[in-house]
Amino acid sequence: MFLKVHRAPDGAEVVAICDRELLNTTITHGDITLRISESFYGNRPASEEEVRKNLQIASNANLIGERCVALAVEMGFVERSGCIMLGKVPHAQVFRI
Fold first, then answer.
1. Which residues are within 8 A (CB) of 74 and not within 5 positions of it... i.e. 6 or more apart?
2. How many C-beta atoms lie closer than 10 Å to residue 26's C-beta?
3. Which pLDDT score is estimated for 11?
4. Which residues are within 8 A (CB) of 39 and not within 5 positions of it... i.e. 6 or more apart?
5. Up-side HSE of residue 15: CA atoms within 13 Å toward CB?
């Protein structure tokens, strides 16, 4: 998986995580096109432990791919029914208020 933490001036964090094979690809499903780019998801591989740690402390998370979404489901941050499918690729967003 690849992980990048975006920090806002107010201290909020958005953790962007994607499965390794999806980086630098484009997914099109109906009228939706999603570019999975290094600028948003980063270019440094992250271990499962690092992904877990960042999901636990993130204000928000954006996840694309079967492995990272499954990890968020396992950790109780999202439910599978709350994910959208872009073709065969699950996408989830987590917001902490």
1. none
2. 10
3. 79
4. none
5. 25
Tokens 């271990």 identify what position?
47
Say what the alpha-carbon torsion angle 77, 63, 47, 6 is, to the nearest 10 degrees: -100
pTM for this model (two decimals): 0.91
Q: How far apart are CA 7 and CA 71, in angstroms?
A: 22
- The pLDDT score that the predictor gives to residue 8 is 83
3-state class of 48 per DSSP?
helix
Q: Provide the residue range defining the domain that includes 65.
A: 2-95
Tell me the CATH number at 62: 3.30.1860.10
Distance from C-alpha of 29 to C-alpha of 21, rounded to nearest angstrom: 18
Q: What is the pLDDT of residues 76-92, one digit of tens each?
A: 999 999 899 998 999 99
Give the pLDDT confidence of 14-62 residue by residue, as tens digits.
999 999 999 999 999 999 899 999 999 999 999 999 999 999 988 899 9
| Structural domain total, the chain | 1
